[in-house]
Amino acid sequence: MVNKAILVGRLGADPEIRYTQDGTMVTNLNIATNEQWKDREGEKQQRTEWHRVVAFRKLAEICSKYLSKGSLVYVEGRIQTRSWDDKDGNKRYTTEIVASTMQMLDRKGQGSDQGDAPAGNYGNTGTSGTYDDDVPF
Questions:
Q1: Among 80, 94, 97, 118, whose Cα sits 20 to 30 Å from the Cα of 1?
Q2: Could you give the CA distance from residue 119 to residue 81 in angstroms, rounded to a whole number?
Q3: How far from the centroid of its chain's Cα atoms is residue 103's Cα?
């Protein structure tokens, strides 16, 4: 079985950073992807889909350091749905992409104003320019 998501899109906001109780860094990203088509009348239509992406450990650190609102990114990961009880006791659900690989697609000087990031893919792919931190499954 395969559970793999691939996104190319722009961040709708700066990354949100937090830490788990054991001190693991977690970065949340909101990524927008666009779909364009022409309807039956030939009018151009567009739909934006928003995706919740979460990165852990070293990948979370890289995302928080080098990405900002408007950054163009390539993300690979798996789709995960979590549930919890809110303060009123209602069951809540969220579906997100747990990132395993991220690549910055902006040209130097575009997107992030956080500084120049080293080139390469980031994640647990085991190739040059990557980090081999395990993503919790």
A1: 94
A2: 32
A3: 10
Give the closest residue to 25 by CA, choosing from 37, 16, 34.
16
Please, are residues 114 and 68 in contact by the beta-carbon 8 Å criterion? yes
SS3 60: helix
Q: How far apart are CA 134 and CA 83, in angstroms?
A: 23
> CA 86, 11, 54, 45 torsion: positive or negative?
positive
Q: What is the CATH number that goes with domain 5-37+45-114?
A: 2.40.50.140
At residue 11, the pLDDT reads 97
Give CA separation, 106 vs 17, 20, 35, 62, 80, in Å. 22, 30, 20, 15, 27
pLDDT tens digits, one per residue of 34-75: 999 999 999 999 999 999 999 999 999 999 999 999 999 999
| All structural domains of the chain with their residue ranges | 5-37+45-114
